[in-house]
Amino acid sequence: MNFMHLINALPGVAAQGLIWGIMAIGVYITYKILDVADLTVDGTMCTGGAVYIMLTMAGLPWPAALLGAFLAGLLAGLATGLFHTLCGIPAILAGILTQLALYSVNLRIMGQANRPINSIQYDVLLSSRDVRALSIQNPIFIGAIFVVVIIAVLYWFFGTELGSSLRATGANQNMARAQGINTNVSKVLGLMLSNGLVALSSALLAQYQGFADVNMGRGAIVIGLAAVIIGEVLFSKVFHNFGLKLLAVAIGAVLYYLVYQVVIWLGLNPDDMKLVTALIVAAFLAIPYWKSRYFSKAGKRGAQTHA
Amino acid sequence: MLEIKEIYKTFNAGTINEKRAMNGVSLTLNDGDFVTVIGGNGAGKSTLLNLVAGVYPVDSGTISIDGQDVTRLPEHKRAKFIGRVFQDPMMGTAATMQIEENLALAARRGQGRSLRPGITRAEREQYKELLKILDLGLEDRLTSKVGLLSGGQRQALTLLMATLKKPKLLLLDEHTAALDPKTAAKVLDTTEKIVQRDKLTTLMITHNMRDAIAHGNRLIMMYEGRIAVDVSGEEKKKLTVEQLLNLFSKASGSDEADDKLLLG
What we know:
The structure holds 2 protein chains of 2 kinds. Chain A is an all-alpha fold. Chain A is about 75% helix and about 0% strand. Chain A has a domain at about 10-220. Chain A contains 12 helices and 2 strands. In chain A, strands 1-2 form a two-stranded antiparallel sheet. By secondary structure, chain B is an alpha/beta fold. Chain B has one domain: Rossmann fold (3-Layer(aba) Sandwich). In chain B, about 35% of the residues lie in helices and about 25% in strands. Chain B has a 6-stranded mixed β-sheet with strand order 6-7-8-3-9-10, with helices on both faces.
């Protein structure tokens, strides 16, 4: 266990964490603002990269390819949204259906299960080759710019009339409808926006790692939730502003990759990492429940009177 | 203002739990009418309000507001005409949003929601003034999360939201039932103030017969999905609780009225 190995891995941790942070911000929109656990993202986390690579290989410049990936994400969110609102399918199942469908769609887009992209030959925005370079090509720098711009845009959007109606829908659907908000439209819009961001993150990730793979999104929702939860646990006491809360999510994603790297450095098989992630997220979701059930003051008093 | 014609509604039709909740109700409210609605549990009071608000569709019959047939309009579209306060104080406000944000949402009821700012500085000043009518000190807490407020404060805020943009029809579904007597009286007092000020056409369900008599210019009593008693004008002004019970016994043809109404 050479400590330098860990230090050497840190730039990669930062870059990957920031890219996944964009994905986690997408998850935050559905999970925290709309109060829906959207499993579509496991599929979208490949779709974005697949679309980006195919468009780039077709000769499109990176901004157009990135836009294409974003639009593909919007479509995936639209599919889940329509399953949920138009067909009355529970949100979680609607997401699973789209996710499954996307597996085939992703294979169709790529034509094969894995698509490498040569960062020298094709027009890519960032690459892991530059992760130690002191230039604006550095993926850490580019990732950070994306995170900041996305947070700024979302901060503005959720302050508008339309954004407020999305928040109201997530907070209290009865109230939202009584105030004339079409809650179905809100949900579809939220799901689209979320999946658009996830696809954008996927497109950046595919460039960073130099390939898109049909399995690259497996378990993405859990990583996203982990980032949201880590950000919340660490910063909820200090960050009250909405923009800062989104920043906390991105930092949460970076910390997730830091923990990931440390655990691997300690000798854990990377194959076991999904198991570890699932258990960590389960624990963090369980803790607030246990706290309210077994450790609250009211609970203790109740226990004493029954004793 | 409101015209209900022969509406029927059956829940769980064809099952063992079948319940005919609305049994051919017709009701016309004139502009500025303040109608109180009483009746025992399961008489159909809340169903009537929910059908008017569009929470669920009618089986048959029509509902018009201000001459426009709204029978087929979904809930969020009818909201353009209707302000509502619910029995559950949690239901009318968004707990995780600020007081001013809740008001700003209500101020845009019936309008398209675009990418304009969700709240403006001018609105904040306006809300500060409007909150004073509640006399709860909320005017100094515009940016507090609504989840921090008490049930009474939330009901008062919901009332303000329902009337912020003058509705053609105000629906109050036992909006003071979940509050302690003192708070209930205060919220009811504010209700009366706002309804008088804006001359709102109002349907108010209450479980309290005295309140039903004290407020409004017309009183209806429901029984088994029908309007059993309908009193207005001078007759309503002179009404006593005892007379009301007698009227109900006559209409329903049973003596169990007393218990059902008083306890219900």
